[in-house]
Structures are given as structure tokens and as C-alpha cells.
Design goal:
30% strand, alpha+beta, 5 helices, 10-stranded mixed β-sheet, 244 residues
């Protein structure tokens, strides 16, 4: 059976997340529905990252098998036709090797978190960034973020809903940079715990506000969720790309 890979961009504001659920509209269900309308039979779509409700993506990757080979452009354009008016777009569709799987073949996932640090509320960036009104010590965020690099037990940085049996993860890269009122935090790793990036960001913000006196290193060593900071809102998080 022909195996296809697609790269998907979406605004997650009005969705319950990637995973198909009974309680609302999901990205996975929308893609499967579009394929059904295009081809006339049910197809299971597998994603590289199970983004939460409200989380966005520039480069989510998904894969699926079809009964017969179809031109990639027909898949891309046909799916986009049936996805309208939902804010989901298939940017690329391509035929790949039978062994490719969007989730299990991934070697690295890249996330980006967007903060706007200002007193006025957001307008254009509403639902697409976290507006933090108190002035943040960005240099403190930059220096403390480096403690995340490498292999650690990140039990303090996962939600109570996390089902992973192992909380040891390796952060390959983290970068905090700012321009005027905008602060961007980039994080990459092979895999992440549930809500890990959002808790990492929330903790850095609480440290930058002076609400937490412990360093990231001390919080990692404690392995206690209560020692870390808040969970940053989903609206500022983007799945940027996935490497294979």
C-alpha cells in the first residue's frame, strides 16, 4: 500500500488538539475527514506530535497509507479543498518509503514559544502568543534556560496527565532571544513529556518575574512538579518542524 507523508500547518485555537476525541474537533479527525471526502474510504492518519488544545503548528508531519498510488499534488490540493474553511493547510504531500511513520521515524522535534512582554493586551497576536504584563528579566531567562541542555530527569516539568513511564529526556538545544517586546523560546529534542515545553516556559517566566528563587538546575534535581512554575498557555506554542 502506498505510504504518504504530509506537512501540515494549522491554527489550533478552535481545536481540542491533534488527537481525535469525542468532545470536540481535532486536527487528526479533520484530515481524515478530508481524505474520506477526497477518496471515498476511511484512512487512519498518524501525526508526529500530539499537540494539545490551542497549540499551533507550522510543520506538523503526518503519514497514512492509501489503497493505490495517487499524484502527490492531487492529495495536497484535494485535501486543502475539503479542509476549507478550517484553518488547516497541507503544505506538502509526498510518496515515501513503506517503513516511514510520522511518529516513530522522527529523530527530532522543534518547538517555538512566543511571549509578548507588554502592559497593553494583545489584539493581532491574541490566541497566538502569551501576553506577560510584568517586566521580565530576559537575561535571567537566557542564562537559566541553559540548565535544561542535556539528559535529565524532567519529572518536575510534566503534567499530572502525563502517561510516560520514563521522565528522562534529552534537550538537544534551547534558545531564548528577544526583539523589543517579543520573546521567543526555541526547544528541540527527540521527544517530550506531556506539557513539558509549556511548563519549562512557565517556569522561566516565573523565575524572570522573581516569583521563583530556585534555579532551573535545582528544580530539575528536586524532580517535584510543585517546585516548577506555572504551565504557560497553549496559545503561544508552535510545533515548528520535525526531523527524520
Amino acid at each position: 500500500m502506498p505510504n504518504y507523508k504530509i506537512i501540515v500547518e494549522y491554527d489550533g485555537t478552535d481545536f481540542v488538539g491533534w488527537q481525535q476525541q469525542k468532545n470536540g474537533n481535532s486536527i487528526q479527525a479533520a484530515l481524515q475527514e478530508a481524505l474520506f471526502k477526497l477518496l471515498g474510504y476511511e484512512i487512519s492518519v498518524f501525526g508526529a506530535g500530539r499537540t494539545d488544545s490551542g497549540v499551533h503548528a507550522y510543520g506538523q508531519v503526518a503519514s497514512f497509507n492509501l489503497n493505490k498510488e495517487i499524484e502527490s499534488d492531487v492529495i495536497r490540493d484535494g485535501m486543502n479543498q475539503h479542509l476549507r474553511p478550517r484553518l488547516i493547510a497541507v503544505k506538502v504531500a509526498e510518496l515515501v518509503d513503506d517503513t516511514f511513520h510520522a511518529r516513530f521515524s522522527a529523530t527530532k522535534r522543534f518547538y517555538e514559544y512566543k511571549i509578548i512582554n507588554r502592559r497593553p493586551p494583545l489584539t493581532i497576536d491574541a490566541n497566538h502568543a502569551w501576553c506577560v504584563h510584568k517586566k521580565l528579566n530576559v537575561e535571567k531567562m537566557k542564562s537559566d534556560s541553559l540548565f535544561f541542555l542535556g539528559k535529565h530527569d524532567l519529572n518536575a516539568f510534566r503534567s499530572s496527565h502525563c502517561q510516560s513511564k520514563n521522565s528522562i529526556k534529552t534537550i538537544d538545544n534551547i534558545n531564548v532571544y528577544n526583539e523589543k517586546e517579543e520573546i521567543i523560546i526555541e526547544v528541540s529534542a527527540k521527544s517530550f513529556l506531556h506539557s513539558q515545553v509549556r511548563i519549562m516556559v512557565g517556569t522561566l517566566v516565573d523565575i524572570a518575574k522573581g516569583n521563583i528563587n530556585r534555579s532551573i538546575k535545582e528544580i530539575i534535581n528536586s524532580k517535584k512538579r510543585e517546585d516548577a512554575g506555572q504551565t504557560a498557555p497553549a496559545s503561544g506554542l508552535y510545533l515548528k518542524k520535525v526531523d527524520y
